């Protein structure tokens, strides 16, 4: 499956660079539409701690809570992090329902994972009256969460690629809550006329210079120290969104509530 799920033909989410001021963010995006922010933070130190080797060494025996990959994420299962990485972190089975698929996103124990999160540099913008909360996850290629909505937030990919599909609050997408995003992309998406298609983008880490024996994705080693063009997606309150990991991916969201 890796490499077989394509990126969108053209990213249709607006982009802004580090010159975007906080006042313009509030005026143009905070309450109205998503945006991809480029170059607003440097998370090279955090990324270096998120390799497979480093995470297994730091958190291997700790339990993590897995959620079903359906709209409402009803079922929760606790397993040791090492068991998840070594035995459950696999590409999505296209025939498997989201309600029968478990993966690790959110429900983090902040006492155990706090030392890692201390190294994360969140996006600089906030919505007045909200406080940030982190949601960290690792998932296999082809996995994802089908359409759902909640409060505003930011999402960043540390390793891998994550494809996003977004609709405004007044445009409910056609989907089955127990169907995976992969199944929706294969069966429903091709039938949508252009006017009914979502905003789309593929989120990836910032560009890095090649390091010794470094490989992208969820590698054994981090790549070199140079870091630029970081991409962070902002999604406003109540926007419908679905996600699809195009590779084995490490990611973190900052929810504003």
From TrEMBL:
GO terms for molecular function: cis-regulatory region sequence-specific DNA binding. Gene3D superfamilies: Cupin. Residues 99-252 form the JmjC domain. It comes from Pomatorhinus ruficollis. InterPro entries: JmjC_dom, JMJD6_ArgDemeth/LysHydrox. This is JMJD8 protein. PANTHER family: ARGININE DEMETHYLASE AND LYSYL-HYDROXYLASE JMJD (PTHR12480), JMJC DOMAIN-CONTAINING PROTEIN 8 (PTHR12480:SF21). It comes from the Eukaryota. GO terms for cellular component: nucleus.
């Amino acid at each position: 499956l890796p490499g077989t799920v394509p990126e969108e033909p053209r990213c249709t989410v607006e982009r802004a660079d580090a010159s975007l001021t906080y006042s313009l963010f509030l005026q143009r995006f905070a309450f109205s539409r998503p945006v991809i922010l480029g170059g607003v933070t440097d998370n090279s130190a955090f990324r270096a701690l998120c390799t497979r080797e480093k995470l297994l060494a730091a958190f291997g025996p700790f339990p993590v809570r897995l959620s079903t990959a359906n709209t409402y994420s009803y079922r929760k299962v606790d397993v040791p992090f090492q068991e998840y990485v070594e035995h459950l972190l696999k590409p999505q089975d296209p025939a498997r329902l989201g309600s029968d698929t478990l993966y690790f996103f959110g429900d983090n124990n902040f006492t155990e994972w706090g030392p890692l999160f201390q190294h994360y540099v969140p996006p600089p913008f906030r919505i007045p009256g909200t406080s940030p909360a982190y949601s960290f996850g690792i998932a296999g290629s082809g996995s994802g969460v089908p359409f759902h909505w909640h409060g505003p937030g930011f999402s960043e990919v540390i390793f891998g690629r994550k494809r996003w599909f977004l609709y405004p609050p007044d445009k409910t997408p056609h989907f089955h809550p127990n169907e995976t995003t992969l199944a929706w992309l294969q069966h429903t998406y091709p039938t949508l006329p252009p006017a009914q298609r979502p905003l789309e983008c593929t989120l990836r880490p910032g560009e890095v210079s090649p390091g010794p024996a470094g490989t992208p994705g969820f590698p054994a080693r981090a790549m070199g120290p140079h870091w630029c063009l970081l991409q962070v997606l902002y999604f406003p309150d109540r926007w419908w969104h679905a996600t699809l990991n195009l590779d084995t991916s490490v990611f973190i969201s900052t929810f504003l509530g």
